[in-house]
Amino acid sequence: MTSCTRRVAIRSTALAGMAALIGTSVRAQEASPAATPISTGFPITVVTANGSTEVSAPAERVVALSYPDVDTVVALGVTPVGVQRDVFTESGIPVWLEGKIAAEDTVVLEIPEEVPIEEIVELQPDLILDTLGTRSAPIFDRLNGIAPTVSGMPELQQDLVSDRTRLIGALLGKSEEAEATLAAIEEEITAFAADHPQLQGKTFSFGYTGAVENIGVIVSPDHFVVQLLSRFGLSVAPALLDSDLPARGAPGSVSISWEQVQLLDADIIMLGFSNPELQQQFEESPLFGSLAAAQRGNFLTITSEMATALNVPSAGNILWTLDQLRDLFQQLDFIREA
């Protein structure tokens, strides 16, 4: 299989699985102590799912194998020497990091199934980050033999943005930068809410679908999507909370069929699709046309990149997400007419 064909296959798999990704329970922007006690001095010992690892000095040559790790390292001013490929872009770099990572400085690693150990060895890293990874013990041992490896952090599986940022900041010797980054994010979220008072008291539905018969909709107050939008005064459409809907498998979401699409109706509907054909089919259906939000022009399409950022929020993509939401919300009738 050629590298081009392999990327297409990986992208197709990711798109097919995005509806499952929508529903990953995440929490962010709440003041909380770091999940792993962090010292501002070295050496720093981090307890991982595979055992402890010790970082003896601020890392400079970082390989990041989890998406939020890539984002966070860049947000803190360090250019990683190697990163996991983003399957939604040709360059392999997330859209929110465009212009912040140069191809000559960072190697994009193909990780469809196996970790490319030899390529990582050649990069001579002094730290390997893989906080969302669930590597086997033998793979972890091999990685940890190359450089201190932070992989499979059980307490970070909920993707606490503040905890991950502080942890990585400490390992890079950039704890002050980590706090400044988190403060800047909080400031921007507060400013966004102040700039959009029309959102106060409005309802929303947010989901992603990869098939006509199954739409995954986020409803949990623990999910980053719900938490972020609630900061703007928005709340989940009551029909989605009151209905006895089946859980979607991943925490935080429920599943509805196409025939139940009326449950999505709210002041704002935000929905993503795994492919353009499915979106066209949905928008041409009489059921879609019956939605009050659609009739008012308050149906907003979420791209796969935006769905990823909202499900795996990080210090490096939240500001980009706010920019995307700012543009999207300009389409809403109650903002256009304000």
Overall pLDDT metric: 85
- CATH domain class of the largest domain: Alpha Beta
Determine the CATH topology of the largest domain. Rossmann fold
SSE order, one letter for each helix or strand: HEEEHEEHEHEHHEEHEHEEHHHEHHH
Task: Tell me the Rg in angstroms.
Answer: 20 Å
- Superfamily (CATH H level) name of the largest domain: Nitrogenase molybdenum iron protein domain
Distance between the amino and carboxyl termini? 54 Å
Put the structure in a nutshell.
This protein is of the alpha/beta class and 338 residues long.
Keywords:
elongated, disordered N terminus, six-stranded mixed sheet, Rossmann fold, alpha/beta, 338 residues, five-stranded parallel sheet, 2 domains, 13 strands
Outline the structure in words.
This protein has 338 residues and is α/β, with parallel strands linked by helices. The chain folds into two domains: 160 residues, Rossmann fold (3-Layer(aba) Sandwich), CATH 3.40.50; 141 residues, 3-Layer(aba) Sandwich (Rossmann fold). The protein is built from 14 helices and 13 strands. The strands form three sheets. Strands 8, 9, 10, 11, 12 and 13 form a six-stranded mixed beta sheet that branches. The radius of gyration is 20 Å and the shape is elongated. The N and C termini lie far apart (54 Å). The N terminus is likely disordered.
Give the helices and strands, then pairings:
Layout: H1 3-21, E1 44-48, E2 51-55, E3 62-64, H2 67-75, E4 82-84, E5 107-109, H3 117-122, E6 127-130, H4 137-146, E7 149-151, H5 161-171, H6 175-195, E8 203-211, E9 214-218, H7 224-230, E10 235-236, H8 238-242, E11 253-256, E12 268-273, H9 276-283, H10 286-289, H11 292-295, E13 299-302, H12 304-311, H13 318-329, H14 333-336
Parallel strand pairs: 3-4, 3-6, 4-5, 6-7, 8-10, 8-12, 12-13
Antiparallel strand pairs: 1-2, 8-9, 9-11
Helix pairs in contact: 2-5, 5-6, 6-13
